[in-house]
Amino acid sequence: MSEGIPLNIHCVEEVSSTMDVAREMVAASTRVPFALLAGSQAKGRGTGGRAWASPRGNMYCTICVPEAMVPAEVMPVLPLVAGLVCRAAIMELIPGADVHLKWPNDIIHNGMKIGGTLVENDGTHLFIGIGMNVAVAPPVTDAGRPATTIHNIAEAAGVKSETVNPRQLAALVWRHLFTTVNDNTITRAELVRRFDAAMDKSLTLHRRNGAERGEETLTAVRLNEWGHLTVRKPDGSEETLMADYLF
Ligand code: BTN
């Protein structure tokens, strides 16, 4: 049951990037909404055009949704919703798991990265890209934070890791996403509140300047009504970030 939207997941082996192949599928009139789940990616991409390491064993998925399906309340905070539904999916598989979010698009456990999301559009469709470390924690290649896996979290929580796989995770993300999108009562304020509550505010953050890590240490304070993040600087002053990515 996916809140009225039947599960429609296309599973493939290696692709270039699920973002690019999903766009080709839309052009070929594939029935939407759909999810494309790949075993690995040769050219996976992350935010800011960075490469996203995509070895076998993890979840590489793009969910394609017609823009018209997404309510006006949800659209401005869709990148935050992407993180929320990934977190909800992991916590459904591993009850009690200590999964948090790092603004704007990272899924975190104990300060380590579990995955990230990337939202793109082509004017008529939204492409919600999700990469989650299920079995493999790729080495840190830039100044980013270390990674962990959902299998590590499961084992620590006493859940057998073999019961957690990318297909099952994708199905749960699908269900949580469409439950949110189809909820006529949901407000932007509520979605922002949920993301704010799910953030790990104990993290020390740094601005991402290309591949460089900004020297200034920042801590997350709160989200404003549009989901922009106010951070506190070492001198106690605050600044609101709108389009930054953070280490
Ligand atoms: C980030 O930089 O944290 C976002 C990473 C998003 C990676 C996913 S993996 C599936 C989809 N295909 C891609 O090429 N990227 C996204």
From TrEMBL:
Provenance organism: Trypanosoma theileri
Pfam family, one: BPL_LplA_LipB
GO molecular function: biotin--[biotin carboxyl-carrier protein] ligase activity
InterPro entries, per database record: aa-tRNA-synth_II/BPL/LPL (IPR045864), Biotin_CoA_COase_ligase (IPR004408), BPL_LPL_catalytic (IPR004143)
Protein name: Biotin/lipoate protein ligase
Presence of keyword Ligase: yes
Keyword Magnesium recorded: no
Entry GO CC: cytoplasm
Stated family: Belongs to the biotin--protein ligase family.
Keywords noted in UniProt: Ligase
The BPL/LPL catalytic domain, residue ranges: 2-185
